[in-house]
């Protein structure tokens, strides 16, 4: 897409339609520019289509007695303990994920509030820097004259010349 086409689309207030038309007409160039995203999208679609079919095949095999399916399940000596430990571990993982989810929402809210306050805080910071520069300039202009009047410079000069 060149600048002329963008300018025409912006003047016509139909930039989205222009992008769609150019994408349909110039799709090889668009694909070359976004090859990584295209591969990921294709893999995602492939997984979304194949997962139900694979699940249905495994379910049918297990119901027919193949693929590890048994009609008379038997329990070993420690199966009950394993089941309880796995359940507790799974519950702790779910609580950890839930905590992470709640924490992400809280952090998102704080970040949103912080971003809204950036312009005002930036203005305050610039004002503070200007005030610091002015006060430093006043202090530098005032310090030598007041030190000479009070005699501080003579005593420090004498200490320097004695050594």
From TrEMBL:
What keyword terms does UniProt attach to this protein?
Answer: Glycoprotein, Membrane, Transmembrane, Transmembrane helix
Q: Is Membrane one of the keywords UniProt gives this record? A: yes
Q: Name one GO cellular component term.
A: membrane
Task: Establish whether keyword Transmembrane is in the entry.
Answer: yes
Q: Where is this region: Disordered?
A: 140-163
- In which compartments does the protein localize? Membrane
Domain of life of the native organism: Eukaryota
The membrane-topology field of this record reads: Multi-pass membrane protein
What InterPro entries does its record include?
Prominin (IPR008795)
Which Pfam families does the entry mention? Answer: Prominin (PF05478)
**Transmembrane domains' residue ranges:** 35-64, 84-107
Similarity field: Belongs to the prominin family.
Q: What is this protein called?
A: Prominin-1
Q: What is the lineage of its organism?
A: Eukaryota, Metazoa, Ecdysozoa, Arthropoda, Crustacea
Q: Which gene encodes it?
A: Prom1
